[in-house]
Amino acid sequence: MDQSLPGNSAPSGGAATVYTSLTTQLVNLIPPMMVLAAILFWWLAPLSIAENPSTLLATGAVSICIIQALEFVFERHPGWRINWREFATDLFYVVLGYTAIAWATEALAETPLKAVKASLGIATPWVTQLPFLVQAALVIFLIEVGQYWMHRLMHNTAPFWATHAPHHHITQLNAWKGYVGNPIELFLISLSVVALFDFATAPVFCAVSVLGIVSGFAHANVRANPPLFYSFVFTTIRHHSLHHSTGFDETRCNYANSLILLDRIFGTYREGEASVVGQDERKRLSIAEQFLFPFQPAIAAVKARRQGSGMPA
Q1: Is residue 202 a contact partner of residue 42, using CB atoms and an 8 Å limit?
Q2: pTM (2 d.p.)
Q3: What is the pLDDT confidence band of residue 247, given thresholds at 50, 70 and 90?
Q4: b/e string for 180-200 if b means 16 or more Cβ within 10 A?
């Protein structure tokens, strides 16, 4: 694969090799550098900023837009090159995630969980006493453990697979594709037990920010292959593209959204990469088809019944 920068003329001969090698190394460091920048921001920012939900919204939007923009400069696979239709669809799901899915998670999961916590008198004041980085790491672990097992359940249980399968119908990977899926799946995958613990706000926001960056790069068409200190712990596009490959067996691995370490621990890690992704003969689903996918058997049954009774379908 040509690793030179688009639009730039590199030196020739040995100098070109050094130039290309240096460029590749710098590109490979972009994901860990963005994660480090996020950690430092939340760690050092004044509490008036670090505990403001608007800050989390703004940093999340900026981070994912930066990753999306990197696709135009450091493209990994030409076949994944985003077009206006994909961009508009992805944008719809990003907005859906920040609005309806976020509201549903808060109203139907977080608030009831906090109420149960209060009614049972559950308190974890020791959590707040932990160092900032330890709290953030614990939040990342708790969120990812929940997502890992929910994701694994979706791939191994038919009713749950019906909600998750639409996400595997995407035929290219881009930075915003992590937001694409059936709303039921998007809600289920967002569930966690973090609300049962008394974490400080800033470490929670830091963890969410880091997970957003890692997940963004894990779906992005960016030719970054982060070094082992990153890729042993965090999910990369190599890990996640294999999970999205066309073979059904290949999809039953690398379940972790952002913490590939969990796959290594639980024996579901698999090495490899895919440049062709999608399921069911790579049929791309529209937004309406994504939403209705889990209900297709019921819809088909109703149509069959109507046809059997002579009613128009």
Answers
A1: yes
A2: 0.89
A3: confident
A4: bbbbbbbbbbbbbebbebebb
Per-residue pLDDT reduced to its tens digit, 51-81: 999 999 999 999 999 999 999 999 999 999 9
Are the C-beta atoms of residues 282 and 246 closer than 8 Å to each other?
Answer: yes
Question: Could you tell me which residues are beta bridge partners of residue 75?
Answer: 222
Mean pLDDT, rounded, for 167-178: 95
Q: Alpha helix (H) ranges present in 157-281?
A: 158-164, 183-188, 201-219, 228-231, 237-243, 261-266
Q: Compute the distance between CA of residue 233 and CA of residue 230 in angstroms, rounded to an integer.
A: 6
**What phi-psi label fits residue 121: left (phi over 0), alpha (psi between -120 and 50 degrees) or beta?**
left
The tokens describing 254, both together, are 């690398």
In whole angstroms, how far apart are CA 62 and each of 75, 209, 223?
A: 19, 11, 20
The residue written with tokens 């613990």 in the block is: 197
The SS3 of residue 313 is coil
Q: What is the distance in angstroms between the CA of the first residue and the CA of the last residue of the chain?
A: 51
Structure tokens at 309: 């009774």
Position 300 confidence tier, pLDDT thresholds 50, 70, 90: confident
